[in-house]
Amino acid sequence: MKNFQGGGKMAIEKVREYFKGFGLDGKILEFDVSSATVELAAKALNVEGERIAKTLSFRGKDGSAFLVVSAGDAKIDNAKFKHTFLVKAKMLTPDEVLAETGHAVGGVCPFAVPAGVKTYIDSSVYRFETVFPACGSSNSAIELTPDELYKYANAVSRVDVCKLPETKE
Length: 169
Prior knowledge:
Number of helices: 5
Oligomer: single chain
Shape: globular
Distance between the termini: 40 Å
Strand order of the largest sheet: 6-2-3-5-8
Strand content: 15-25%
């Protein structure tokens, strides 16, 4: 596996610059530990894993890359995904993710991405008052409400393409 850390440092600076335009660059959190997975991010932030907003990268029917931001405990529901996007859910490879989004796996976020990359926010994040998406590196995050996430991600629309784990009662 390649080490994408070099690209990650540049990406967090792009995200910091992006948020500076909204006066929010000071809200970006950086950790001394990795936050590259939902579990590691939850531990670094001391929050439940479901509140981590993970950004997943896919290839659209037209060949372009797009992002879906979902709650940390949500999984793609293949039938809902295909119904919504008219294509089978196929995630990009780590090399494709970096090339298409400018962010390396572990720090992928919907901020400061190239203009052609569309972002969709899954309804699973709307269960929470605030969520924590990454900020372009494998040791960063920002706390946003779902509506702020939608706004700052320049989201195209809210979608329902995930399923949540079965609740234990």
